[in-house]
Structures
1.
Amino acid sequence: MLLTREEEAILAGEHGEVPERMLRLLVRLGEIYKADKMIPVSSAQVAGVSYKSIGDPGLEFLEDIAGKGARVSVLTFLNPAGMDIESWKELGFPEDFVEKQLRIIEAFKKMGIVISATCTPYLSGNLPRFREHVAWSESSAVSFANSVLGARTNREGGPSALAAAILGRTPNYGFHLDENRKPDMHVAVNVELRTDADFGALGYFVGKIVKDRVPYFTGIKHAGVDSLKALGAAMAASGAVALYHAHGLTPEAKDYSPEGLDTISFGEKELTETYQNLNSGEEPDILILGCPHSSLNEIRTVAMLVEGKRLRKPMWVCTSRAVKELAIRMGYDEIIRSAGGKIVADTCTVVAPVEEMGFKTIAVNSGKAANYLPGFCKARVIFGDTEGLIRRVIE
Ligand code: F3S
């Protein structure tokens, strides 16, 4: 790898211990993937925030480097934490978990990282432009940045995103390069996708087959931002898809054609079977929406569905703090509270310790959540669309 004089000096320890350690990590990564050089990134998004995911070793590492002066050099957002940073008591999060989680948050804050605690940074103030190089790590955010925005990022691990945030650079390989962004599988969609849950089901089905390849979708007539985030999140979870193209919908699709690629079909039969495969529970203990974190429009839809009604089960609508503030201002929070639900910020169904909170069967509208809940949270799943799930838990 060709390193600049400044990078050589960092490696020689002339800028201190933390930059040296961080650059060593990036150089190692670059060597593994045969990067030719480092390139600048304009923003980072760091995962590995929940105490449930990183435990004591992660906490000690973060406190150590924060104490040694680690500071980010580009706009850096944080992935969801294991709890709502402000309303944890009301929501019943365990106190020993809270203590550790708050120390993790403090360490990130000390490094200058924005405590956005969201997997949808693009909805709350970190929005890269087309072809901009960034270093993001949460898989659904990576998919959205690459596919819907046309920005360029690899699927970073927590440590490599943090290193990129501190040094403002990343090794030049993978999805930063044009040649790796072309599709290598065609997905022909032959069914009308009516809800965001349908997009999640499509993503779950495709991710399992294409793994980490780049699919090219045809046949999707219309998709809004919320549908595309549901699609990308599910594909990144059941497979490891970090980039997809959708004809007429995503910015780089026009540069490619599905001609000559192996084709998989997704029709009514596959849609129905995917719903069946994702359902393992009967009566939910809780309904959790917002994986990836809800947009304001999704929260508005929920508010309209529960207005004047009473829920017979708890309901969380997960989102970022920034979007929750708008929901409060617009009165959606009040409507949802009056029905017995809650807008929960900073966390989500997968990284919160839901199993310790007694929720064994969880209803979700997300293909990604449905994929992770059985393994990560030992929960049974009811998978359906927002409206159907809400009707199911209305008194
Ligand atoms: Fe976001 Fe958590 Fe889902 S990080 S994509 S809400 S699993």
2.
Amino acid sequence: MAKSERPSGAHPTSPRGNQTRASEPADPKGRVLVADDEIALLRVYKHALVAAGYAVDLANDGAQAIELVRLTEYDVIISDISMPAMDGLELLRAVRSHDLDVPVVLVTGDPALATAMRALEYGAYRYLPKPFGLEQLTQVIDSAVLVGRMAKLRRRALEIVGDSNKQVGDRAGLEAAYARASETMWMAFQPIVRSCSGAIYGYEALLRSNEATLPHPGAFLDAAARLGKQRALGRAIRDAAGEAFAAAPADAFLFVNLHPHDLTDSELLSPNAPLTKLASRVVLEITERAAIEDVGDALACVAALRKLGFRVALDDLGAGYAGLTAFAQLEPEVVKLDMSLVRDVHLQSTKRALIRSMTQLCMEMGRIVVAEGIEKREERDVLAEIGCEMMQGYLFARPGRGFPTVQW
Ligand code: G
Ligand code: MN
């Protein structure tokens, strides 16, 4: 149902009653929802806002407010901070799971710096300590309406231009999006094949979710980092990958991406973790994009992982800024060449020469080379001729549910 089609029974009866529609301006400047547990105050707000040209809905607690937000698109929401059952900050968070942009103005009779800061951190548009003049209120609402409209336009522009990293506005919106992403998270698997035969060597587990505002794993992981939930997400990924892999072909390896951050999580070494139980079949990918030097005892941790039976791959080689320190320190059993190196390798002789040298060096050191992101037959043929042992990319199979079959 479209938000503007409100069923007639949906309005709370008290305190708004049936006179609401009658006293609304004919062509309102916008629609405002006011939530406050003091009914007398609600009437005052309403009177002032209707006089200023707004259509106004009232709610005398958070639950009623959320009910209305579900059915109606508001231009601004005003809420008292202290209300029984659901306070203004909780209301703000609940609002963000329905509307990422609507400005929320929080008012309070008990201004405390800590609450004010939390209100702003969670994306309240303004924090108004009582008492304030009605003129001040209408000024704040006038500007909030414009800001809210701008936010909606900006989101539409982002959808067109496609910078999907920046779609979730404030912290409350980010939390709501992150919660939805976590609920719908699943692991895709992409085959890694042997260059000589196309036989399966292993599968890389790749994070996926059905949350539209965090449309790729990078956005999901960034959201976790911004919310301080990196460690929890890392665990969820490893557990989900380990559990899903129970259904994989018997002799395949499982490749799992780790953030250097995950190396400091004691759970990583837990004998009871689903992944630890599979350790001898697991290759942990550590990216060259993030600086491993920043993680205090990363090397001790990698040594402990090897004791448990894990192998290590250096991921995204060629895409990092970090020189070869990670390569030297990690002593990876597997090296994954970044797709930026692989792309058009048949057309660019410098790339070809570089990959040839890297591959030869790896072979001399007994490391396995996986070329990532292969999309074209010409790339595959050149890489096979150079001697890359393993390959991965859309040309063979896209990441997908279960264990996708290979086109060879
Ligand atoms: O950083 P890492 O190498 O783990 O990232 C792998 C990412 O690359 C995944 O998100 C996966 O979906 C994507 N990917 C895998 N194969 C291809 C490919 O052939 N082309 C492109 N463009 N992306 C790929
Ligand atoms: Mn990877």
3.
Amino acid sequence: MTAIAAAEVIVTSPGRNFVTLKVTTADGVVGLGDATLNGRELAVAVYLADHVIPLLIGRDAMNTEDTWQYLYRGAYWRRGPVTMAAIAAVDMALWDIKARYAELPLYQLLGGQSRKGALAYGHASGADTEQLFDSIREHLDLGYKAIRVQTGIPGLDSVYGVAASKAGDGERYDYEPARRSASGRALPVEEAWDTRAYLRHVPTVFEAVRNEFGAELPLLHDGHHRMTPREAAHLGKSLEPYDLFWLEDCTPGEDQDALRYVRSQTTTPLAIGEVFNTVYDFQTLITERLIDYVRAAVTHAGGITHLKKIADFASIYGIKTGFHGPTDVSPVGQAAHLHLDLALHNFGIQEYMRHSDETLEVFRTSLTFEDGLLHPGEQIGLGVTIDADEARKHSYEPAYLPVNRLLDGTAHDW
Ligand code: EZ4
Ligand code: CO
């Protein structure tokens, strides 16, 4: 038996907030798990510290499946992003430990290497076409072979996915949706939204991008859960001439049935799931083949054990993966994605936003990005360590994701 001797929650904010679980065995082997829930971080930190860590001490660190079931079924109150992020962090840490005992990079325990590396897509954006083209060129220069395109909308001041400023550190455009208030009292930023303006403008932008960059480049777009099924169907149809890799999150995440109408109306590939927590959120979507890509994140969908089940279930229906990889997934969570990406047969694509240099000083990762492909590296375990001294330098600062309102003030999906 490889007993868990200690577990600790580390909250750190190197440019943005991260919650990490550090589990240590009686032999002193350490595993890390990402528990970051953007904008609601401390709820998971307390859930772990008060309700989960006491259950871990003395358990066999090797029993990833039983520990997952114990925490999921044992809570009685199932699912939800807080619970599932906490379970995810434990699960990642235990897989990290298992691979460290085996002295293997984790992907070797998940099926080995099925491809050279994971095709990554980056986030290009611009308030107008000129800025967008610059951003696409910068991503091509960085080696990206697939690009998400988000654009400003005439008449709207600030739009989801459009970077506000240039950061000048690798990614060039700084994009972090959760914001902090200068006054110290963090309240969510309120954005204004107009779906009709969006639906009119987006196809013109894709036409311009195709004219400038050609037919070959894989292009993606994120609708961020803002459309009704009819609106989403309309957008999917109007984007068909531009041959998207996928249209993401076109309708609200709770409503699996909504995708049935969208699917019946358009051949634009559909992806959804970054806000999903379990395989049950995908059940209808997968069995009725209403989507092409599952977008869950290892951090919010119960860790490696559960994300692999989602991917395997999807594979039976010919559906591929496209795991959620914004900067609010820490280098620990992103490493977990990459080990799965390398091993899973039905891997599709991996979202990748480079973390800031500040973040990468706290989290030392063996991840590499070369020629458009991500690789988790050959270090044992997840391949990530946390520098506790660096982490302590960056104390938690509250930040919220924005809220969205229609032009008349009605609250809308952000
Ligand atoms: O808005 O991770 O596809 N990526 C996304 C992200 C999410 C953020 C929320 O924390 O939709 O940018
Ligand atoms: Co998204």
